[in-house]
């Protein structure tokens, strides 16, 4: 017995929290991939990633609300809109900032995020919209835990994108060229690589990730302006795992997801709730004290 609870039940409870945290963490990783893709190519952090997810969710929800529109069409529309939006953003807003300090790009994305948060209420309304997907809603038992089908779908999509992007960056010519651009833009240009083209490609890939993340998270939480807060929830994931590491995004997501779940299960009953909102940042700060570049981040040494 532990605190009046049989040890077997205690173990079951802990394992159910871990399984639930793993699934949520992998869904965080899906959003974190957008951060990583942009940073790997442009060396800048997209602080509007959460707003990208929100925008994709609204596009999918509005498309799905059209009479007779199938879910696959809503997903395809969200992907297409986010790719076009990302291309336009890179071409019109970000490309003129090439060669400027990185802080200029960061401030541009912060301003863009504020603009995007104000866009839905004045165009399609501010109410929460449902985004139902044809995957059912009957919980699936995985050992001691039961997960909704949308979380399982999110895990599958995350692993699929992880495999695709890993192959892309390690095996394809375009992926290798993008890694060269991320490593040193001037050397890449001297080698004949069109840096601007690969910047645009990086933002387009981030748009695809945002679209899929918006559909998954929008289906689970509903679509409204608060969906953009997922960007802040995911920020500890990319910092912990490493801003330029795809594997780090997944590992960081798993760690943060499990920490959130355990904090909610064991600490919330004593403090009245809310520990899962700040526990990831505590873990991030502690980790940065020992690994300033994240678990899998590239350590950069600059000569002065």
Structure overview:
This protein is mostly helical and 304 residues long. It has a domain at 20-127 and 147-231: ABC transporter involved in vitamin B12 uptake, BtuC, CATH 1.10.3470.10. 72% of the residues lie in helices and 2% in strands. The chain has helices at 7-42, 49-65, 71-94, 102-123, 149-171, 173-183, 185-190, 195-221, 230-241, 246-266, 268-271, 275-290; strands at residues 140-142, 145-147. Strands 1-2 form a two-stranded antiparallel sheet. α1 packs across α6 (173-183). The longest helix is centred in the N-terminal third of the chain and has 36 residues, at 7-42.
Radius of gyration: 20 Å
Shape: globular
Question: What structural class do you assign from the helix and strand content?
Answer: mainly alpha
Placed side by side, the strands forming the largest sheet appear as: 1-2
Terminus-to-terminus distance: 60 Å
Task: Report the CATH C-level class of the domain at 20-127 and 147-231.
Answer: Mainly Alpha
CATH topology of the domain at 20-127 and 147-231: ABC transporter involved in vitamin B12 uptake, BtuC
Tally of strands: 2
Helix content: over 70%
- Biggest pleated-sheet summary: 2 strands, antiparallel
| Number of distinct helices | 12
Residue stretches low in confidence (pLDDT < 50, at least 5 long) are none
Determine the CATH superfamily of the domain at 20-127 and 147-231: ABC transporter involved in vitamin B12 uptake, BtuC
Please state the average pLDDT score.
Answer: 85
């Amino acid at each position: 017995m532990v605190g009046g609870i049989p040890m077997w039940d205690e173990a079951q409870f802990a394992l159910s929290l871990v399984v639930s945290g793993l699934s949520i963490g992998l869904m965080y990783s899906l959003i974190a991939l957008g951060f990583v893709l942009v940073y790997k190519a442009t060396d800048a952090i997209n602080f509007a990633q959460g707003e990208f997810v929100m925008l994709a969710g609204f596009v999918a929800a509005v498309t799905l609300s059209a009479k007779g529109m199938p879910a696959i069409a809503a997903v395809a529309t969200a992907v297409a809109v986010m790719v076009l939006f990302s291309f336009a953003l890179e071409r019109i807003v970000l490309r003129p900032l090439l060669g400027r300090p990185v802080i200029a790009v960061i401030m541009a994305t912060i301003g863009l995020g504020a603009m995007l948060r104000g866009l839905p209420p004045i165009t399609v309304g501010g109410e929460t919209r449902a985004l139902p997907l044809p995957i059912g809603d009957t919980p699936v038992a995985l050992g001691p835990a039961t997960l909704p089908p949308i979380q399982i779908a999110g895990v599958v999509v995350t692993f699929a994108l992880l495999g695709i992007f890993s192959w892309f960056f390690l095996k394809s010519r375009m992926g290798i060229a993008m890694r060269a651009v991320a490593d040193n833009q001037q050397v890449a240009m001297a080698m004949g690589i069109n840096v601007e083209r690969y910047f645009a490609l990086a933002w387009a890939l981030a748009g695809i990730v945002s679209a899929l993340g918006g559909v998954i998270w929008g289906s689970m939480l509903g679509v409204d302006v608060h969906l953009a807060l997922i960007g802040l929830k995911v920020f500890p994931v990319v910092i912990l795992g490493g801003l330029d590491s795809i594997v780090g995004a997944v590992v960081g997501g798993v760690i943060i997801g499990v920490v959130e779940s355990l904090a909610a299960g064991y600490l919330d009953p004593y403090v009245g709730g809310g520990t899962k909102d700040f526990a990831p940042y505590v873990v991030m700060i502690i980790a940065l004290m020992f690994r300033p570049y994240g678990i899998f981040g590239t350590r950069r040494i600059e000569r002065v």
